[in-house]
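Example record

The entry below shows one chain as it appears in the dataset: sequence first, then structure tokens.
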Amino acid sequence: MDDLKEIKTNLEVTVRFLSERIGPRSYQDLERLEGAAQYIEEKFRSYGCEVKRQTFSYSGNGYHNIIGEVKGRGRPGEILVVGAHYDTVSGTPGADDNASGVAGLLELVRLTVIKPSTKTIRFVAFTLEEPPVFRTRHMGSYIYAKSLKKEKVKVEGMISLEMIGYYCDRKGCQYYPFPFFKWFYPEKGNFIAFVGNISSKAFTKRVKDAFTRASTLPVESINTVSFVPGVDFSDHASFWDFGYQAFMITDTAFYRNPHYHSAGDTANTLDYKRMALLIYGLKSALTP
């Protein structure tokens, strides 16, 4: 399909720009973070999306969430948030973690501008997801979710794109936090996962059901408690803190990708065809 080819091409262009042209984007790499922020802003604007920055301070420096919005056709007052973080851990180019998520975010913006949803969708590129602020109130996603709550914004739910590019087809290449998970989930890492808390189960199921009708990419889901390692390891958890339904879309990170948080997390390790199937299906799921 021509749509899938274009999506695939655009995804790879963004991943390579962020991971190769810009490179590591840790909280200390201020110039590189700014370069990534500008790239995302320019893409948002080129697609015809309204854009603004949310600037905040951490450790004496300024950091920026980049927010794009596409108004809904029928119920613009109902808001869905889709986000991905553009920072990395120190010393890694961050192709999968998380240039892949940002690439998916940008493609969803482009496709949504062409065919808007009935609801308003806010697309947010978060900064400061990685250590040393990981799982703290200094995360960009926490700052943004807190602002939504303060402004009493009605949010239907939030979806975090967190590592969406690595797949493996060898039996036994997929790992899980507990051995018994293998009784219920595949041994091959050829699927995408929707991961949320128990309170977000209905929202997760609604998006998953719509996704499976539109995409051939296998999808698994789990909504469980946070003591399961990895369930709250991204920006979606910031939204739980303020009572919003939220889940993460992920290739399961360190349970599959041997290059996680290393210099080996490069653009050549990703599967852009499967990424395209994911974004194609997700766009359909978000456009009722």
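Notes for this example: The chain has a mean pLDDT of 96. The chain has one domain: 2-285.
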